[in-house]
Design a protein that fits this description.
0% strand, 263 residues, Alpha-lytic protease prodomain-like, mainly alpha
Length: 263
C-alpha cells in the first residue's frame, strides 16, 4: 500500500487534506468557466490554439475531479498513484488532439480571426493561475502527495500556456501572422505530452523516495528502504524503467581485466 512521506502532525495533515480539496474545487470551478469561454470563442474565431487552451482547461477540470475523488477515500494515499496516471492520460489525449488540429491548420493554411475575448481570457489566467498553482504545489509537497503536486503542476502549465496563447493571438490580430496560432497550439501539445509522461512515471514520488532513502540511511542503515511502494520506483528512489531516451553509462571494467592493476 502506498504511504505518504510527510512530517506533518495528524492535525496538520487533516488541514492539508481539507485545503487540497478546497483548492481542487476552486480549480474545477474556474477551469469550467474558462473552458466554456475558450472553446466557444475559439470555434467562432477558428483558432486551434484557443480551442486547445479550452480543452486544456477541461483537462484541468478532470485533474481536479480526480483529486476530489481521491480524497473521498478514507486513505487517499492509496489512490495517489492511480490519480497521477489518470491525470497523465488526460494530458496525452490533449497532446494528441492538438497535434492533429494544429497540423491540419498548417497544412490547409487556415487563417483564424482575431479574438479579443481570447486575449482577455489569457490575461485573466495569467493573473489567477500562478497563485493557485503555488498553493496547490505547496500543499502537495507538505502532504507528500504526488497527485496533488501534479495537479498544481497542471495549473502552472496553464500559466505558461496562457502566455503562449496570448502571444499567438496578439501576433495574429496585430500582424496577421496566421501561422502563429497553430504553432502556439503545437507548443501547448509538446508541453502537455511532457507533463503526461512525468505524471505517468511518477516523478515526484520517486524524488521523495530517494530523499527518504538517503535520510533513513543516515539515521539507521537498516531503514534505507523507501516508503514509496506503488511500483513507480525501487526502494532507493530509482526507477526500474528509465526514460527511453536517457543515455546509458557502461559499467567500469575491472583493472585486472585491462592488465593495469599495478599502474
Amino acid at each position: 500500500m502506498t504511504t505518504w512521506t510527510t512530517l506533518a502532525t495528524p492535525e496538520r495533515r487533516a488541514t492539508l487534506m481539507r485545503r487540497a480539496q478546497l483548492l481542487a474545487a476552486v480549480s474545477v470551478t474556474y477551469n469550467t468557466v474558462e473552458a466554456v469561454i475558450a472553446i466557444t470563442a475559439g470555434n467562432i474565431a477558428g483558432s486551434s490554439a484557443l480551442v486547445g487552451f479550452g480543452l486544456d482547461s477541461l483537462v484541468e477540470v478532470s485533474s481536479g475531479l480526480v483529486i476530489l475523488w481521491q480524497f473521498r477515500h478514507p486513505m487517499p494515499e492509496s489512490r495517489d498513484r492511480t490519480s497521477q496516471r489518470l491525470i497523465a492520460i488526460s494530458f496525452f489525449a490533449l497532446a494528441a488532439y492538438l497535434t492533429v488540429e494544429a497540423g491540419h491548420a498548417l497544412l490547409t493554411g487556415a487563417e483564424p480571426e482575431g479574438s479579443p475575448v481570447g486575449i482577455g481570457l489569457a490575461i485573466a489566467s495569467l493573473a489567477v493561475m500562478p497563485f493557485l498553482s503555488l498553493w496547490q504545489r505547496r500543499t502537495g509537497k507538505e502532504l507528500g502527495s504526488g497527485a496533488v503536486e501534479g495537479d498544481g503542476t497542471q495549473t502552472l502549465l496553464c500559466t505558461y500556456l496562457s502566455a503562449v496563447l496570448l502571444v499567438g493571438l496578439v501576433l495574429n490580430a496585430t500582424l496577421g501572422w496566421s501561422w502563429a496560432d497553430p504553432v502556439a497550439a503545437l507548443i501547448i501539445a509538446a508541453v502537455a505530452a511532457r507533463e503526461g509522461w512525468e505524471n505517468w512515471q511518477g516523478e515526484d514520488c520517486c524524488a521523495r523516495a530517494a530523499l527518504s532513502a538517503v535520510g533513513a540511511s543516515a539515521d539507521d542503515p537498516s531503514r534505507s528502504s523507501s516508503t514509496c511502494t506503488d511500483g513507480c520506483c525501487d526502494g532507493h528512489g530509482t526507477r526500474p524503467d528509465p526514460h527511453p531516451f536517457a543515455p546509458t553509462i557502461p559499467a567500469p571494467v575491472p583493472p585486472h581485466l585491462l592488465g593495469v592493476e599495478n599502474l
